[in-house]
Amino acid sequence: MKKKLSRILSILLPLLLGVFLVIYTFRQFTPQEVEDVKNSFKTANYLYVGISLLVGLTGFWARAYRWKYTLAHIGYTAPFPVKFGAVSITYLMNMIVPRSGEVSRAIVLKRYADVPFDKGLGTIISERIIDLFLLIIVLSATAFLQFDVVKEHLADVPFKKLLSYGIIAGALFLGSILFFIYSKLSWVQKLKTKVSGLIEGALSVFKMPNKWPFLLLSVYIWFSYVLMFYITIYALPETANLSFGSVATAFVVGSLVITFTNGGTGWFPVVIGKTLTVYGIPFTAGTAFGWIVWGSQTGLIILLGGLSFLLLPLLQKSK
């Protein structure tokens, strides 16, 4: 009974939090701005939203299918439903506690496919390394394409302060690494044993014989993210004429917001609205667009993650 209750709460919590933040955000608008946002919702063409979600579903599939290559390289395998369910749960858990999804994913793999936690987590880290690399490529390409627009907004960035913070953080990180390498404390030695398993999994992507299918699927995953975002601009007449460069800028900003928050809950729509004002889109229309993108993708995550929580125990036996 307690397990079922915890699963239900895991599904409802991000939904309730999202509803609360929707109400809070709308309270910051004037009555006329609220009406403008509502009209955007009413006039939106949700056919494009549905198409974007179908594209997103293929991204879920690609991420689950890609996982088999790193697992196979370290000598393990898992049924596709387990991998797909684990990926779905990852997205759902990240909406509750940022970056907790990766740990949950490794736990699901351990429970239903008997893959050691540290090795499973290592393969997930290797995926995240590739994902980070691809995000940097997308970010760099967007900055190059939109340099004339971006440079107008760099004057207010406190680069000197950011540099000093970066130096302090780098020094602390380096000191932690040196302590970890040379310490003889027993708990550090135990941690090193666990970390070796993580490293084995993380490096597997660069050594495995099927690295090219893995990399191609990685590119497709990010392509599906961008395509989802781009298709949705046609849902609103105010955003339908945005250039690809402006869409790419909004996508990168939105991706960073999602990465550093609990799935962008409450933040994503407002930040997207602010970003699109740079390209002449009214803030209310941009915010409505952000809510449509975030709301539709969040609905897909809750649906797939919730079904995975409920069905995996029924379809797969714990190992």
SSE sequence, one letter per element: HHHHHHHHHHHHH
Structural class: mainly alpha
How many helices? The count is 13
Largest beta-sheet characterization: none
Distance between the termini: 21 Å
Low-confidence stretches: none
β-strand amount: under 5%
Broad shape: globular
- Name the helicity range: over 70%
Number of DSSP-assigned strands: 0
Mean pLDDT: 80
Radius of gyration over alpha carbons?
21 Å
Please name the defining characteristics of this protein.
globular; mainly alpha; about 325 residues
Question: How would you characterize the overall build of this protein?
Answer:
The chain is mostly helical and 319 residues long. It contains 13 helices and no strands. The protein is globular, with a radius of gyration of 21 Å. The model has no long low-confidence stretch (mean pLDDT 80).
Short description:
The chain is mainly α. It has helices spanning 2-27, 31-43, 46-73, 80-96, 101-113, 117-145, 147-150, 159-182, 186-207, 211-232, 244-260, 268-277, 283-315.
Helix and strand arrangement:
Blueprint: H1 2-27, H2 31-43, H3 46-73, H4 80-96, H5 101-113, H6 117-145, H7 147-150, H8 159-182, H9 186-207, H10 211-232, H11 244-260, H12 268-277, H13 283-315
Helix pairs in contact: 1-4, 1-13, 2-13, 3-4, 3-9, 3-10, 3-13, 4-5, 4-13, 5-6, 6-9, 6-10, 6-11, 11-12, 12-13
